[in-house]
Amino acid sequence: MNLRNRQQTAFAFPVLVADIGGTNARFALVKGPGSPTQIIGTTATADHDTLTDAIKSCALTAAGEKPKTAIIAVAGPVTGDRIPLTNAAWVIEPNAMISDLALEEVVVLNDFEAQALALPNLEGEDLQQIGSGTPLPASTKFVLGPGTGLGAAAMIYAADTWIPVPGEGGHVELGPVSDEDFAIWDHIEKVGGRIGAEHLLSGTGMPRLARAVRSAEQADGTYTSAAEVTQAADAGDPVAVKTLRLFAKALGRVAGDFALSLLARGGVYLTGGVTPRIADYLVTGAFRSSFETKAPHEALLRTIPTFIVRHPNPALEGLACYARHPENFAVSLTGRHWQSAIAPHRRTG
Fold first, then answer.
1. Would you say 280 is a known binding-site residue?
2. 23 annotated as belonging to a binding site for a ligand
3. Which has the minimum average pLDDT: 69-73, 75-79, 106-110?
4. Are 90 and 323 in contact (CB under 8 A)?
5. What pTM, to 2 d.p., does this model score?
């Protein structure tokens, strides 16, 4: 894709945007390039056999207008005409969607690519800043999302264009650095012979970290879910409190690593289902201190801001921003764009 000569034809409106997770599917409608994002529904993936069924029963009725385009975010790579979801039974088949829903075109993107697409337009109450720093305009941003797993993506600014770059950053190594860490790390259950960031910094990883804390301190009891850990911490359980403090510190370290790797002067942004549940631990200092403790670059890290994303549907908003003005983003649609035989030809970039 040549950025200098890149041309992006506008999508056919109305555009249905969808954020498809392992548990829930969320839908919104964008009626035109100047229209707001109209949230039209959320449904459990387990309640429907296919995405098409979910759209028919949940989205089309609420939308009021029949969409001509669908832009969908899914967890995982898009590798062909049949796209299985990692954590749900659905297989997304864009050509079948075009036929069954009378769509002109379907675009399928990565879920954290959608999160990244939202970043240039988040402001005000959408964000809660943690610590110091000011985002520089037209500068690289990074999003990190502890949820079921640990999602990650960058939004690079180059050649006067925003370029979303999804990746598997949640699987980087995570080792101990402090005496407290070393006392805990030997008790952490390894996955595939290693300890990756997602193995601890996620909804599935949090109870693994809590079990290690309990084992190191020879404390009784156990946790089977992140919800149990956060509820116990709210009740003052010392093991759960320590777990969340360690979680925040480790998340700060990983966020700081990515900020340095990409020189993310536009800021690092925290999303995901776990983030709002541990917000008190993120803003009290452990997260930001770990983020900045990157000798010899502490001074640089102090200038890079970190934020909790408070927007209720950042992935949907990112897809909606792209639907309204695709010309503002360099998104390659090769292998990720399907069209009806009777639809106007559109460049795939």
1. no
2. yes
3. 75-79
4. no
5. 0.92
